[in-house]
Amino acid sequence: MAITKKSAVNGGTDRPKLNIGSTSPAPEKKGVWAELSKHVMTGISNMIPFLIMGGLILALSQLIPYVILGVDPSMGIIDAMNSGKYTGSSIGLLKFAQLTLEFGGTLFGFAIPMFAAFMANSIGGKLAFPAGFIGGLMATKPTSILSLTDGKWEANSPVASTFLGAILIAIAAGYFVKWLNKSIKVSHNMLAFKTTFLIPIIAAAGVMLGMHLVVTPLGGLINSGIKSALGAAGAAGSFGYAIALSAATAIDLGGPINKAAGFVALSFTTDKLLPITARCIAIVVPSIGLGLATIIDKMVVGRHVFDKQFYPQGKTAMFLAFMGISEGSIPFALEKPSITIPAYMIGAIVGGTSAVAMGAVQWFPESAIWAWPLISNIAAYIAGIAIGAVITALIVIFARNNLIKKGKLEVDSND
Membrane-crossing residues (predicted)? Predict the structure, then answer.
């Protein structure tokens, strides 16, 4: 008869274990990457609803003022309300747009913390859920770093490590809580104290120190290095600048490298030194390309190459891209980064440089569709986006199909 054992990690769920000498086969051990991929996919599947709900609500905040009401793209919603140009129902629409901006932004901001929480939960059980959530939240809103300047202490806000930091801290928190639960032995009467106080407080402290001392500073280090590299590329010429800017923008979709690229690009475009064309194209190409891949994959290679849950997400990512939101393609990057991230970068580089070569020029730092009328040579701009998106889609489709044929990738697409 199998021996069962209860664990605080799974809330007391019975887990059968074979007696010595049992003839039943032992479960096959998975590799480290296969195991981590399973945990990542758990985080992704639970993050997607927050990403979709927040992104769509946030999109309303752009559609209402800038498409429906025709507000000047350089003007914020509250500034438009105070301008005196809008009255009656228009003010009501602007108020609603401001509400969707704040609510959608807040909801959207929960996507990465929820990803980290469910990934940590998948690794270390329900006790790891709060630790993962805290780590994911700190990945988007890091604690300030104290520094001594002229004899006085100052608190400076570091660059957020975003979803890259969330992955690292989710793994660390999950395995740390799993180890704590296994290592800390208490009597049955003290089990509630262990699971509701002791492990959570130790895990929270570990996450705090891990993010503050390791993950966040690492993001800042990457940020500084990329900023210097992009500055050198910008001085080398417009094409070198476009290539570096496109690659850095597409590589981590709002992460520290992307933010460094944005900082450099904004400073150049504000000073009217170099346009921001390549960056704005690189923001939308990954999501449009992945959305396109989910639409045409079966037509191109005769099979679906994604899990079924990604097909609605692909269409949503494409829609969000036209609103200037690139995070819709994050789940694809997390699921298969070795394929998706290079595809993002190659598509963004080709699309951005093609648009620049054909004469597209954009100074206004906004990639949403409502800003397109402000672009010089809009036809070249749209052509660049289309070229980059098609290249991204084809790279992903053929690469995933090749892995499927070799038996290295399995997808549940209901084919």
Answer: 48-69, 127-147, 159-177, 197-215, 235-255, 276-296, 316-334, 341-364, 370-399
